[in-house]
Amino acid sequence: MMSISGYKTGYVAIVGRPNVGKSTLLNHLIKQKISITSRKAQTTRFRIHGILTDAHSQFIFVDTPGFQRRYRSQLNQLMNRVVQQSMQDVDVILFVVEAGRFGHEDELVLEQLPNNIPVILVINKTDFLTDKLQLLPFMQKMANLFDFATIVPVSALQNKQLSDLTAAIRNHLPENPPFFTEDEITDRSERFLAAELLREKVFRQIGEEVPYSVSVMIEQFTQEGNLYRIHACILVERENQKAIIIGKQGKKLKDMATQARKDMEALFGSKVYLEVWVKVRSGWADDAVALKSLGYE
Ligand SMILES: Nc1nc2c(ncn2[C@@H]2O[C@H](COP(=O)(O)OP(=O)(O)OP(=O)(O)O)[C@@H](O)[C@H]2O)c(=O)[nH]1
């Protein structure tokens, strides 16, 4: 039975091989970088990437461990099960592919899709097609591979058909009041966001090797005119993780810091001087400091 409001809220995972446009899609769906301030966010099993709230629905986009893998090796049955387990609490999965392209890497992701949760096939980058009729045989082929809830062609980059996609997602969300209020999803502080942006880069770069044991601490955050001076520290649990993050001749760390700095500059509308260190954390006392610096008590 419909509730009076008919409001729908649920968790949505976006999966797909690298470079199909998952981040672009998410960013264009939510239109802004947000930060979750609610404690509720910590109690869910997922890292929340973003939330889209409208008059009728709230979409909570989450990250699913396992799908972050870079698909370097063939995943075995066990891995499949682990990933499927991690998906059990989402309401809808968006499986993103590129228009007209379905290769081995896509197949590896497809193999991991659970069959008890609706999966929407998102065919992205339709702007590459000169003739939209080219889509039909591709859609046909894809429909034969998996029992998709529905298929939605979009161009994330050009914001095309994104409202068709949100309507399709909404069809599969349960009726719930919004889980997060406006207050809980507005920016906490620039300091907090700075930590989030850097952490996001760490996960993107090394999601496979160093899972959820990494935290980011902002040790100094000062503003001098049009310049933000930020000293950040990436805390890891073991020496070998530190080496992985730093990378050969410091290249990985440098790349992450550069990307984070650019994002910070865009977000703060200001020049940013960012220094990043990596430290091995020595015990729970450090954790307490780290949590405090992130604004969690
Ligand atoms: N032409 C076109 N390009 C797109 C579209 N969506 C994304 N791209 C481009 O595709 C590239 C990859 O996009 P991302 O959003 O980083 O892809 P991703 O799936 O998040 O990649 P990973 O983080 O490596 O998993 C970028 O250069 C985007 O600009 C689209 O609809 N049309």
From TrEMBL:
GO terms for cellular component: cytosol; plasma membrane. Residues 16-23 are annotated as: G1. Residues 154-156 are annotated as: G5. It is a peripheral membrane protein. One of its GO terms (biological process) is ribosomal small subunit assembly. Keywords: Cell membrane, Cytoplasm, GTP-binding, Membrane, Nucleotide-binding, Ribosome biogenesis, RNA-binding, rRNA-binding. Residues 42-46 are annotated as: G2. CDD domains: Era, KH-II_Era. Residues 124-127 are annotated as: G4. GTP binds at residues 16-23, 63-67, 124-127. It is found in: Cytoplasm; Cell membrane. Residues 8-175 form the Era-type G domain. Residues 206-282 form the KH type-2 domain. Residues 63-66 are annotated as: G3. One of its GO terms (molecular function) is small ribosomal subunit rRNA binding. Monomer. Belongs to the TRAFAC class TrmE-Era-EngA-EngB-Septin-like GTPase superfamily. Era GTPase family. An essential GTPase that binds both GDP and GTP, with rapid nucleotide exchange. Plays a role in 16S rRNA processing and 30S ribosomal subunit biogenesis and possibly also in cell cycle regulation and energy metabolism. NCBIfam families: era, PRK00089.1, small_GTP. This is GTPase Era. It comes from Nitrosomonas stercoris.
